[in-house]
Amino acid sequence: MTTATQTLRGEVTVRDLSKTFNINGRALNVLSSVNLHIRGGECLAIVGASGSGKTTLLRILAGLEEADEGRVLIDGQPVHGVGTERAVIFQEPRLLPWRTVIENVAFPLEVRGLSRDEARKHARRYVQLVGLTDFVEAYPSQLSGGMAQRVGIARALAIQPEILLLDEPLGALDAMTKLTMQEELARIWREEKVTMVIVTHDLEEAIYLADRVLVLPKEKGGRIRTIEVDLLRPRNRSESGFVKLREELLSEFGLH
Amino acid sequence: MALDIEQSYPLNNSPSKTGRLRSGQVGPAFSTGVLGRLVRGGVQNVVVRYGSIIALAVLWQVSATAGWINPAVIPPLDRIWDALVNGFVNGPLWRDVAISLQRAGIAFAAAVALGIPLGLFMGGIRVVERALDPILQLLRQTSALALYPVFILLLGLGETSKVFVIFWATLFPILLATIGGVKQADPKLIEMARVYGARRSHIFRSVVLPGALPQIFVGLRLSATTALLLLIAAEMIGANSGLGFQVMNAQYNFQIPLMFGAILLLAALGLVANSILETLQKRLCRWAPAKA
Fold this sequence. Notes:
The complex is a heterodimer of chains A (256) and B (292).
Chain A: H1 3-8, E1 12-23, E2 26-38, E3 43-48, H2 54-62, E4 69-74, E5 77-78, E6 86-89, H3 101-111, H4 116-129, H5 145-158, E7 163-167, H6 175-192, E8 195-199, H7 203-209, E9 212-216, E10 225-228, H8 240-252
Parallel strand pairs in A: 3-8, 3-9, 6-7, 7-8
Antiparallel strand pairs in A: 1-2, 1-4, 4-5, 9-10
Chain B: H1 4-7, H2 15-25, H3 28-65, H4 77-89, H5 93-124, H6 126-141, H7 144-155, H8 159-183, H9 187-195, H10 200-236, H11 243-252, H12 256-284
Helix pairs in contact in B: 4-12, 5-6, 5-8, 5-10, 5-11, 7-8, 8-10, 10-11, 10-12, 11-12
């Protein structure tokens, strides 16, 4: 698991993916024939109106939901169900309340068969990476929302995934914390060299983080639009290129 | 590191530790003031917490000695105390406490030994729970005391029927609390564990079980109270030893102080049992605030 191979790996291909939910006997088509290619190490943001199926798409990539049709390939291999090369970060941190910060980060490593001590030792690096060294032994109930989410991020990174799937990870945070955390995510993505797929309803967040922004259509069967974010990193939210892209994205939603 | 924003959040990170740190930092001129406030705070705490019970004891003692109430019916506390001491030194009270503890203890232990594993099993497997739930509802709605004559018929008038009726009554709170605790497991946490590849058994051990623990303790504490309640009832009906028997026997023989002594002893047992469970709960569920 050297960083050199990681930059190349974590490539995602989605082929003709369709998903229909059955809600009270009525078929609800959420995704139809979605095709997508994500380069290894890329950061892709998925935006779309609510109900556009962006979370469903992410959950299918994660293996938490099964597609009716189509395939997901990771590094060329078709995948079924969850896998250790992928980690998911949810909107809620989903920490185990009876475990301390370090024990929460160590959890997936224990699942993988590491001993308690080994897992803790390994987890420490990731607690450090998200800046929570002073809170290793704190319980989740003692953390603020932003800190709890950092623990969730550290836990996901601890298994050294090729692909990090984020489902509105900052959606529940206050505005200030959110901005700080966006910078954190940008830094982590740069340092850990993972493929990142982030579902968000925050267009600015999408532009700030992503190499490409995928806009899912509101009406089914509509065209998926892709917007390249060709801005230098670290990005500046008030720079003219940023503002222009933001306007372009807003107009995708008929907003100004 | 972008931690500065986070640090403005209040952190209840081990309050005792930070508290000690702070008092170490204040100057000597302050410390006496802090100490004084602590002492006054401590006294105030004691008054608030135990004031009512002290007042009740004083009222009892005074009204019985002053003759406001008939001391033959409600004797003053010092006479109850004397009767208790006498009962322990010269009488059979030790034996009664021992046999009562034995009955309640065996029954409670058996209820825990059966109730928790069965509850985990029933709560963990939806089909089992659904299949057994009707029987469970029927059985738990049937008063254990109403079934006591049945148990006597089946098991005789000896120890077994007494222990069994207590066991019966204590089983259900534990069983139902355990089932409830397991069923309430947070599906979001289970999904999280699934993402990291945890298998069913692992999820059960590391997500479901710890999450159910506070609920299980609620059941245990309820059961401990029930155990003592049923103990007295069982000992009042056809027993010749035990604290419940002593309460009845002392009343028959008009040893009113001893009767009250035995009653207070029972109350004390209940408090001790509860505080043992509370301590255990605090230790095992450090992460969750203990609920009363």
